[in-house]
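Colleagues,

For the teaching module next term, I've prepared a clean inverse folding example: a structure given as tokens, and then the sequence designed for it. I'd like students to try predicting residues themselves before seeing the answer, so please don't circulate the second half yet.
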């Protein structure tokens, strides 16, 4: 049996949140603390299931998470309640292309867009999203984007990431692999995600889940163009350890944009 994967389920199956947040926490803590505002407000754009925002709320910050998926927002609200942070943060269903409309002119000191979401949009859509995020940002505030640096794979036709093997809620085996392929060299990538899921703990039958997604290849100069237009300050890193960004070697492209 083959099943087309929903984006929300795909997102959760590819992330091991405990280890991810443990790795990323020092970076975010440093960046947010560097903002000179004792009452920093945070906006997480395409917040998914709210894991980052809940972590920020545990540190004492207030904020808003926005995502187009009703499924993700419901999961985020549930996570926030379980962690007793629902008094500090709220989650709303909204389109990234209509941020200002969804947020009714609110202002924030730190805005994040994490997890390669920004790479899905066309150049024109990215400009629209960035301009709205910048309008929502207070002076002295920071915007953080994290996308995958696909340019580190320009010498490959296709490649795959380390498979994820785990057991589900019913102790069934799940095996997930991501296969990447250049669609237009240095311009677009196609990602194929395949998950073989055992029908039951002792079953010999497996269900095949599949998903195909296209990403634009974002480069450092794309973010430089954004910041030059608004005279903002741009910082580039190759990972959450603040390693210098190298187009040919860095796994990620992490950008911090500070509003003057």
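(Answer key — instructors only)
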């Amino acid at each position: 049996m083959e099943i087309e994967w929903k984006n929300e389920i795909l997102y959760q199956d590819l992330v091991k949140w405990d280890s991810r947040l443990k790795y990323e926490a020092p970076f975010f803590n440093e960046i947010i603390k560097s903002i000179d505002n004792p009452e920093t407000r945070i906006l997480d754009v395409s917040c998914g299931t709210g894991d980052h925002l809940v972590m920020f709320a545990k540190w004492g910050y207030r904020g808003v998470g926005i995502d187009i998926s009703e499924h993700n927002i419901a999961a985020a609200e549930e996570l926030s309640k379980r962690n007793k942070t629902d008094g500090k943060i709220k989650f709303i269903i909204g389109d990234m292309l209509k941020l200002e409309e969804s947020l009714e002119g609110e202002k924030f000191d730190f805005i994040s867009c994490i997890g390669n979401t920004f790479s899905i949009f066309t150049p024109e859509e990215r400009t629209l999203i960035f301009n709205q995020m910048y309008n929502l940002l207070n002076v002295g505030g920071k915007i953080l984007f994290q996308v995958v640096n696909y340019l580190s794979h320009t010498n490959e036709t296709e490649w795959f990431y380390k498979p994820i093997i785990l057991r589900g809620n019913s102790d069934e085996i799940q095996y997930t692999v991501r296969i990447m392929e250049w669609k237009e060299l240095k311009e677009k990538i196609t990602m194929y995600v395949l998950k073989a899921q055992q029908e039951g703990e002792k079953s010999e039958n497996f269900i095949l889940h599949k998903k195909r997604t296209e990403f634009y290849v974002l480069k450092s100069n794309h973010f430089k163009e954004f910041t030059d237009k608004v005279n903002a300050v741009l910082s580039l890193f190759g990972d959450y350890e603040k390693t210098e960004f190298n187009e040919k070697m860095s796994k990620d492209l992490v950008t911090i944009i500070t509003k003057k």
